[in-house]
Design goal:
8 helices, 0% strand, mainly alpha, single chain, globular, 205 residues
């Protein structure tokens, strides 16, 4: 009971996170308001565990939840659809996102090494940068974001085992399995568009 009392915020956040991914798989727009709640809880969890980059990432999630909520409601107009369809990433956009990831990784790693006492700056920077890119892709319903989540979830599990955040380890193990399921489910509903019709990050951001 003492352990539950000390970790109740982490447990609530983990349960909310599982529901969030389930809604994501189902392409249910209610994932975005739930994401606001989950991210707020995890700001506190990561702050107390000194995972500063992850704490900053949760703040980003709050903002991207508003952005994603808007695009899932309104973005379908670009494709002459009532709702935003699932699309694939173009080669040009893939290159742009790769450079964005590298830039974010270097910046976050530099900040963590020089201005924080993070115990795992390299891993923390890697998962944070990858998650930022993946969440932007989710907001635009780009199918390949699931692949980035699988990588980020597996690396995160190792980091959280190191820090003893065991409910979060279980959460990310579930995330990994659900990400595979999500990729397969989204692929079934994929609508093929010409590469030039897929949004690029510098447009309408």
């Amino acid at each position: 009971m003492d352990w539950l009392a000390d970790h109740y915020i982490e447990i609530i956040g983990a349960l909310a996170g599982i529901i969030y991914v389930f809604l994501e798989i189902r392409q249910n727009i209610w994932l975005w308001p739930l994401g606001l709640v989950t991210s707020t809880l995890y700001v506190w969890v990561f702050f107390t565990s000194k995972f500063y980059a992850d704490m900053g990432l949760q703040t980003y999630y709050v903002l991207i939840s508003v952005y994603g909520w808007y695009w899932w409601l309104k973005g379908g107009k670009k494709y002459n659809s009532d709702s935003l369809p699932v699309t694939r990433v173009s080669m040009k956009l893939s290159v742009i996102l790769l450079f964005v990831f590298i830039a974010l990784f270097v910046i976050i790693w530099f900040v963590l090494v020089n201005y924080t006492d993070s115990p795992v700056p390299l891993g923390d920077a890697f998962t944070t940068a990858l998650s930022i890119v993946a969440t932007w892709m989710l907001a635009r319903k780009i199918m390949e974001h699931w692949i980035l989540w699988i990588i980020a979830d597996l690396v995160s599990m190792g980091l959280y085992i190191y820090k003893g955040l065991y409910p979060t380890v279980i959460l990310f193990a579930v995330y990994s399995v659900m990400a595979v399921i999500g990729y397969l489910e989204w692929r079934k509903t994929l609508i093929a568009y010409l590469p030039e019709r897929i949004e690029e990050p510098e447009r309408d951001c």
